[in-house]
Write a structure and sequence with these properties.
Pathway: Cell wall biogenesis; peptidoglycan biosynthesis
CATH architecture of the largest domain: 3-Layer(aba) Sandwich
Family: Belongs to the MurCDEF family.
CATH class of the largest domain: Alpha Beta
Radius of gyration: 23 Å
CATH topology of the largest domain: UDP-N-acetylmuramoyl-L-alanine:D-glutamate ligase
Organism: Virgibacillus pantothenticus
Number of strands: 20
Number of helices: 16
Structural class: alpha/beta
Protein name: UDP-N-acetylmuramoylalanine--D-glutamate ligase
Pfam families: Mur_ligase_C (PF02875), Mur_ligase_M (PF08245), MurD-like_N (PF21799)
Helix content: 25-40%
Length: 449
């Protein structure tokens, strides 16, 4: 295993286990560090906890006493733990640095990182970039917010391997020296304000992806997003914009017939099979990141001629009795649902609802032209019902959950309708994850026949 070269801390508190905390603790113990673990829900009988104890970890479980900070040099925090947590707040008060596991992964990966973030499109862009490199016969691994712990992959990364990381704002807010070779900023809009508290805090978390980059690094950014154009001016890295509109940029762009990188034609637009106009931005960002990493045009073309999308992101589930079912469970905010609605010209029955974070849904109003019916569930169902009434949608059904929503949508549907799960909300009021919600949708669809 590679050594942590720029990590001068000897006594580390790992706050919150889950997958990322467990991986970080294991790596730090293997590096000879003193590790104290604090987790409220874990017990000494859990297999991962028992293993870490055998490796020499000190355990403080079941509560979060302030004494866990005594003698600590740095805190490695689970991304899901907010910064108003008493332990985190006290650590900052004492001048103890608080980081996330991504910081450790960044040091182990030796500058072979392509980091991808944005309010929407991260998973699609991460997957596309990874596959483009694979099809170009480059050695590549993928990790991060996509569901694979970055540290576990980074510790065994070979010298000639690329590491593509999907990065959330929760992960990026806790970095110190983290510096990807290629940083990708897809878009930014107000999200996760319950965690970050302010719009400015959220933006700064995202911009951490390039804050440590130097002149020999690259920042790929959306030239159609004014916030990102302004933010990119702060970056020292070489700037590589992408745009679906502007053909005069020195980056990835497109016209009516083809997509290009700089002045080089990559492929014809009609050969791209990925559904949805919004995905052109993800494609262009992926092309830029892949080309900068040595991908071939042939490798890029192979991917874009076959790739139909990632699971839970405008995923085509099937055609049942002339109805087209799409799973867009990853649409946890209004912008994602706007883009899903814009992808279709057919009549849509929209399945939506979920955790109420206090926001409204009026920004969806201009995108409801093709929506013939709404089937609603979860905490936000009443708000979404008011939206449907405002949009003059005549058929609005309230249901218990995603599973019952599928049956209700099918009953009111006709041939050639699109039945679209695109909730515009997080899943946590009824489901543990958006993946679980999407899987329940898929299962319910399959039970119709």
């Amino acid at each position: 295993m590679k050594k942590l070269k720029n990590f001068p801390y000897e006594h580390i508190l790992v706050l919150g286990l889950a997958k990322s905390g467990t991986a970080a603790a294991a790596v730090l113990l293997e590096q000879g560090k003193r590790v104290r673990i604090n987790d409220q829900k874990a017990t000494e009988f859990d297999s991962n906890v028992a293993k870490l104890k055998e490796m020499g970890a000190e355990l403080i479980l079941g509560s979060h006493p302030i004494r866990v900070l005594d003698g600590i040099d740095i805190v490695v925090k689970n991304p899901g733990i907010s910064y108003d947590n008493p332990i985190v707040a006290e650590a900052e008060k004492r001048g103890i640095a608080v980081i996330t596991e991504i910081e450790i992964a960044g040091q182990l990966a030796n500058r072979h990182i392509i980091g991808i973030t944005g309010s929407n499109g991260k998973t699609t862009t991460t997957t596309l970039t990874t596959e483009m490199l694979k099809q170009s016969e480059k050695r590549v691994k993928v990790a991060g917010n996509i569901g694979i712990v970055a540290t576990e992959v980074a510790k065994d990364l070979e010298q000639d391997e690329h590491l593509v990381l999907e990065l959330s704002s929760f992960q990026l807010v806790g970095v110190d020296q983290f510096k990807p070779k290629i940083a990708v900023l897809l878009n930014i809009f107000e999200a996760h304000l319950d965690y970050h508290k302010t719009w400015e805090n959220y933006k700064q978390a995202k911009y951490n992806i390039f804050k440590n980059q130097m002149d020999d690094d690259y920042l790929v950014y959306n030239a159609e997003d004014e916030s990102l154009v302004e933010a990119a001016k702060q970056a020292r890295a070489q700037k590589v914009p992408f745009s679906v509109k502007n053909r005069q940029i020195d980056g990835a762009w497109m016209d009516e017939t083809a997509i290009y990188f700089k002045q080089e034609k990559i492929m014809e637009r009609h050969d791209i099979v990925l559904l949805g106009e919004h995905n052109y931005e993800n494609i262009l960002a992926s092309v830029a990141a892949a080309k900068l990493s040595g991908a071939t045009n042939e490798g890029i073309r192979k991917v874009l001629a076959m790739f139909t999308g990632v699971k839970h992101r405008l995923q085509f589930v099937g055609n049942y009795h002339g109805r087209l079912f799409y799973n867009d469970s990853k649409a946890t905010n209004c912008l994602a649902t706007q883009k899903a609605l814009s992808a279709f010209e057919q009549p849509i029955i929209l399945l939506a609802g979920g955790l109420d974070r206090g926001n409204g849904f009026d920004e969806l109003l201009p995108y409801l032209d093709h929506v013939k019916a709404m089937v609603l569930f979860g905490e936000t169902a009443p708000k979404l019902k008011q939206l449907g009434i405002k949009a003059n949608i005549s058929t609005i059904r309230d249901t218990e959950n995603v599973q019952t929503a599928v049956q209700a949508a099918y009953e009111i549907s006709e041939q050639n309708d699109v039945i679209l799960l695109s909730p515009a909300c997080a899943s946590w009021d009824q489901y543990r994850t958006f993946e679980e919600r999407g899987d329940m949708f898929i299962q319910a669809v399959h039970t119709l026949v």
